[in-house]
Design a protein that fits this description.
This protein has twelve helices and 14 strands. The chain has 324 residues and is α/β, with parallel strands linked by helices. The chain has two domains: 182 residues, 3-Layer(aba) Sandwich (Rossmann fold), CATH 3.40.50; 128 residues, Rossmann fold. The strands form three sheets. Strands 3-2-4-5-7-6-12 form a seven-stranded mixed β-sheet, sandwiched between helices. Strands 9-11-10-13-14 form a five-stranded mixed β-sheet, sandwiched between helices. Strands 1-8 form a two-stranded antiparallel sheet. Helix 1 packs parallel to helix 7.
Length: 324
């Protein structure tokens, strides 16, 4: 058992996958000598050489296009896009090519690639370096979208993403890179699409993913001091997402709050809320609530950014509203 932060867990997952499978390559801006913007690929160039750890020009469209071609030619590329905001430049390769290849080739071909990218605020990086755009990809048939919440899930989900025969969008929250957790020495791949109960409870369910899981656990602790026991579901994967786990929790607690940092309007939570209203209506004792970011670009100023983002206090207020 080792204590790793998320950046080191990602590094270990990449290194272990590359050691186990010579077809795994990684590519992206500054990932070779510099080790990536957040240090996640540090040391891999020395271990595996420039043929497998490929620093690229500053062209996200070219990086994604090269990865799709490499994946269709027998390699397993793992792309790093420096900030999620820049996935706007990769959309043709990912949405029109990678996501559609298995369908277009009648199941005779696939694109086993992973796109890693950090999202989220908390660093006063402003509206072009802080966006949470996972809902875009979750809407596209043919793509999987996973969002780890700690170092252990980052390792397990990244190993699973690399082993998956289809394209996977792997999203890392910048605010979690330094957060430490236990990672088993013999850790392997985690199943994509399976949620976990991060905290058991009886009075309300909070569904979260990524960094929002930490806020949900903090809110649950505060609520517990007020006699309200909230169950926290860590989705881990938002496409596919674990509908059965959320419904089972709702059947126990009869109240539901969904939270994420992405903008509330048309966000991933909207799908969860709509589906639970459809299949879990008879279990509900109160309206389902969402706690997410408002429909506006994220501000630069630290005070405004803090007010913009969801947090534990906003979750506590939402859960208490469902208890009224």
């Amino acid at each position: 058992m080792a204590i790793l932060n998320m950046s080191r867990a990602v590094n270990k997952a990449l290194g272990d996958a590359m050691a186990a499978d010579p077809t795994v390559i990684i590519l992206g801006e500054d990932i070779a000598e510099a080790g990536g913007s957040f240090g996640a690929t540090r040391g891999l160039l020395d271990r595996f050489g420039p043929a497998r750890v490929i620093g690229t020009p500053i062209s996200e469209a070219a990086i994604a296009g090269a990865a799709v071609g490499a994946a269709m030619s027998g390699l397993k590329p793992v792309v790093e896009i420096m900030f999620m905001d820049f996935v706007t430049l990769t959309m043709d390769a990912l949405v029109n090519q990678a996501a559609k290849a298995r369908f277009m080739f009648g199941g005779q071909g696939s694109v086993p690639m992973v796109l890693r990218t950090p999202h989220g605020g908390g660093m006063s990086a402003g509206p072009q370096h802080s966006q949470c755009l996972e809902a875009w990809f979750a809407h596209i048939p043919g793509l999987k979208v996973v969002v780890p919440s700690d170092a252990a899930s980052a390792y397990g989900l990244l190993r699973a993403a690399i082993e998956d025969p289809d394209p996977v969008i792997f999203i890392e929250h910048k605010g979690l890179y330094a957060a430490k957790a236990e990672v088993a020495d013999d850790a392997g791949a985690m199943p994509i699409g399976q949620a976990r109960i991060a905290r058991a409870g009886r009075d309300a369910t909070i569904v979260a993913y990524g960094a929002a899981v930490g806020w949900a656990l903090e809110a649950a602790e505060t609520l517990s001091q007020q006699g309200v026991e909230a169950e926290v579901i860590d989705l881990l994967s938002i496409q596919p997402w674990d509908e059965a786990a959320v419904l089972a929790s709702l059947s126990r607690t009869h109240r539901l709050v969904v939270t994420h940092e992405a903008v509330e309007s048309y966000g991933p939570g909207a799908e969860i809320v709509a589906r639970m209203a459809e299949v879990g209506f008879d279990e509900l004792d109160a309206p389902i609530l969402r706690v997410a970011s408002p429909f506006m670009p994220i501000p630069f100023a630290a005070a405004l950014e803090s007010a913009y983002r969801p947090n534990a206090d906003k979750l506590v207020a939402a859960v208490l509203r469902t208890m009224e």
